[in-house]
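As a warm-up, study this chain.
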Amino acid sequence: MRVFQRVLILLVLAVAAAPMAGQEQKAAATKAAAAKTQAAKPAETREPGLYMTFQTEKGSITCKLYEKETPVTTSMIVGLAVGKIGGKPFYDGLIFHRVIPEFMIQGGDPQGTGMGSPRFPGFPFKDEFVSTLQFNVPGRLAMANSGPSTNGSQFFITEVPTPFLNNRHTIFGQCGNLDVVKAIARVPRDRNDRPLTPVHMNHVVVERVGPAPADAPEGKPAGKTSAKSPGKAAAKKPS
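Now compare it with the structure written out below.
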């Protein structure tokens, strides 16, 4: 009788285990199929071109540069970013010193006040206005200035279309990751729009996707220009 009971228990356990084994096999097969599908997916690609990524406490902002349309601006800013101008990466550690929700974030001032400018040959440099590049979309990467052809190291990224800035500021890139731009624009700030807690460009990365064009910017000074230095930021526009 006891032998019969043991055999019966073993049979019950075997029957109960069979569905479990089947479920495990099915789960393993599903997992393997998912892995195979993932492996078969092509890697995410970007359009060929030159990109600049600003790594901040709020996340990263990646911008494709208009190197063909704005060769002087691109050359100067890339030169600062990678250290070909000045001998070391210029932007690493600088802050976004002016942030305005529903408008833009501004940075790149070595003094962090909005009054600073690089003291290197070739600065300030000329404007490069392009009729096909307008402030008609969010995410424009553009030069701050205090008047015509007073471009230094300061730039801004727009959060919304700002057509009133057309032909006043050189647009030299288009940025994605606008959620990060919005997050930076909405940090607590004082009445001068300066963040109460600094948001840093911890590191700025410049990278090329695809082959470089023959006339690609090399990050060299664009030649001697006027020695006029940027003035104080205007109240309603980046400067």
